[in-house]
Amino acid sequence: MADGGRDGSLRLDEVTYTSADGQTVPALFAVPTGRRPRGCIMYQGGFGQTRDQAPDVRNGAATLGLATFTIDPRHIGARGGVDQALAAIKKPETLLSMVLGTVADLRMGLDYLQSRPECHNNVAYLGTSYGAVLGALFAGQDPRLKAVVLTSLGATFKQGILATGAAVKQIPNFPVMVPGAASDPALLAHAASVLGPYDPVKWVGKIAPRPVLLINGRFDPIVTPIEALEVAAATRDPKTVVYFDGGHDPFAPGPDQQRVSSEVAKFLSAELGLPGRS
After folding, report:
1. What angle do CA 214, 131, 194 make, to 5 degrees?
2. Average of pLDDT values for 159-166?
3. CA distance 33 to 81
4. Coil, strand or helix: which one is 250?
5. What is residue 230's three-state secondary structure?
6. Is 20 exposed, middle or buried, given 0-12, 13-18 or 19+ CB atoms closer than 10 A?
7. Hey, which of 41, 84, 98, 158 has its CA 20 to 30 A from 137?
8. To which CATH superfamily is domain 1-121 assigned?
9. Bridge-partner residues for 123, per DSSP?
10. Residue 4's pLDDT band (boundaries 50, 70, 90)?
């Protein structure tokens, strides 16, 4: 562990640990110093987001008395660059390897957090988009997570391939999963067969009986309302489902930005037993 400096009232610890397959995983552990932490949250953002991004999430968690732990996913940040990450999602086999490898990294990261006094064995997970895909698989396998927040989560990899293929037509340089599959039925079928067993819709139900909060934007160009409903139907109780007036990023400026943050804070406070909130 190394001193990563400070961010306001947060102490930033640079952490590295070894994953199950021997890879070195870099992580950032942001610990509130103004009050004694009451637990920890593992946070992973969208595709390409590194461990040192999302300061608003870290500071928001700190107001609840939570420390935040974020890793660099495989092929991202200190573990690669944009070109390497884009190359990994071109084929279903390398995309799956990246996803499953990162899930293993997160499970090893939770091993580390269980030893940290700041966490008190009271750990939740928050993931957005790609981070939500990771979270569905992670939480579906690991019962040590006390509560799970998944935002902008699609139902299947096949639908994600089609959505990202369409989005790049409107948003230049948008990361496309398995390029060309949207217009090639044989390639799309192959990708669905490789990735299908790990579709989020097949894993969210395994998180129960731990509570899940699902958040989706009504105008999300990547995850359609029908997909969001499919994920919600597959998630077992106890669950809370929130739809907000916005797009793919639930924390982006917009009419419901404060509402989304409040829903997350209320959920985490209740499920992690944080004092002074309900």
Report:
1. 100
2. 93
3. 32
4. coil
5. helix
6. exposed
7. 84
8. Alpha/Beta hydrolase fold, catalytic domain (3.40.50.1820)
9. 40
10. low
Question: Residue 17 carries which side chain, given as an amino acid letter?
Answer: Y
Could you tell me the pTM of the whole model?
0.96
Gap between the Cα atoms of 69 and 10, Å rounded: 12
Q: Tell me how crowded residue 184 is: count the other CB atoms within 10 A of its CB.
A: 13
d(CA 191, CA 210): 31
pLDDT at residue 278, rounded to an integer: 42
* CA separation for the pair 241, 68 (Å, rounded): 23
75-89 average pLDDT score: 94
Tokens of 51: 């461990």
Domain definitions of the chain by residue range? 1-121
CA atoms of 172 and 112, how far apart (whole Å) = 39
Tokens of 256: 């419901």
Half-sphere exposure of 87 (CA within 13 A, CB side): 8
